[in-house]
């Protein structure tokens, strides 16, 4: 069914299609519209799920953990400080191997108090064991949410998945949306280590030095196995529903001499910048990174790379640029732009390429072009 929807409502529509058993909800700007729309689906009888309005984000994740360990399919959503408040429980969800699915509407962290887009909130969760995907359109937000349940619940993965969409720039923007009936694309959930109340047992939560490293390795093993599961899921989604996705979305990269790498809406904006640069005779391409965890192998050999980070790790640099320089021998121009919703246009992105200085860091709005 074709309609017009915001990114937030697209996520809610996908959740309605998947029909989770339990949804735990706590509002926070700019995510609130997701859980409000789901609440309307539940109250109107369109979605028969247990909807739990909790008192905090920490409790929202705790409720999802408690439900998931019984074998229930679960969903929640949050943003920014709400995600940080969940941090203790996000580690638990991954460590307990629970396929919780969560939408995170990317927003800056205070102080100062800022409600606009930035990726630092989700990137502070990158080492918890959650799979992370970053989307750039309303349609992609819907499709990624559908696929997230199938990926998370696959027995070779059994790790939680976070769908990230830029606050306001995508969460509240109206775009075309084509909804589908996923049918058996998302099979029933079957958690192999679910608690069975008909067969009560004792559980010990303490893991000694002789076992803890094995627990952590098992998460890493599943993160590696997730690569093939993601690839197969995206391939089957394309075959069934006609929309194709990869670990990256590449635009005119084949003959490109310089490639722009970014995530979210900046990655989509970069495609327009590429068109402009091509008209000027600059062989530019765009590689929008979709999956941050597991981090994909990027084909950047022989290219100049301009990385745009809507985030920063103080004392180290742009987080995406740091990830890429750890993988490639090519020199990277690191651009810090879009922090806290700072406006970045395709013309600005084209300027980043025109004035690129390889091997350096440039703060848009602070530094001056050389």
If you had to describe this structure to a student in words, what would you say it looks like?
- It is built from eleven helices and 15 strands.
- The chain has helices at residues 7-18, 32-43, 57-68, 80-85, 87-95, 120-123, 138-153, 212-241, 264-279, 319-325, 346-354, and strands at 2-5, 22-25, 50-53, 74-78, 101-106, 131-134, 161-166, 175-178, 248-251, 258-262, 284-289, 291-293, 304-309, 332-336, 361-363.
- The chain is α/β, with parallel strands linked by helices and 370 residues long.
- The mean pLDDT is 97.
- It folds into two domains: 2-241, Thiamin diphosphate (ThDP)-binding fold, Pyr/PP domains (Rossmann fold), CATH 3.40.50; 251-363, Rossmann fold, CATH 3.40.50.920.
- A seven-stranded mixed sheet has the order 3-2-4-5-7-6-12, with helices on both faces. Strands 9-11-10-13-14-15 form a six-stranded mixed sheet, with helices on both faces.
- It is globular.
- Helix 11 links the parallel strand 14 and strand 15.
Span of the ends, CA to CA: 51 Å
Low-confidence stretches: none
Q: How confident overall, as mean pLDDT?
A: 97
Beta-strand content bin = 15-25%
Rg over CA atoms, rounded to whole Å, is 20 Å
The topology string of helices and strands comes to EHEHEHEHHEHEHEEHEEHEEEHEHE
What is the count of helical runs? 11
Tell me briefly what this model is.
The protein has 370 residues and is α/β, with parallel strands linked by helices. Helix content is 36%, strand content 19%. α1 packs across α2 and α1 runs parallel beside α7.
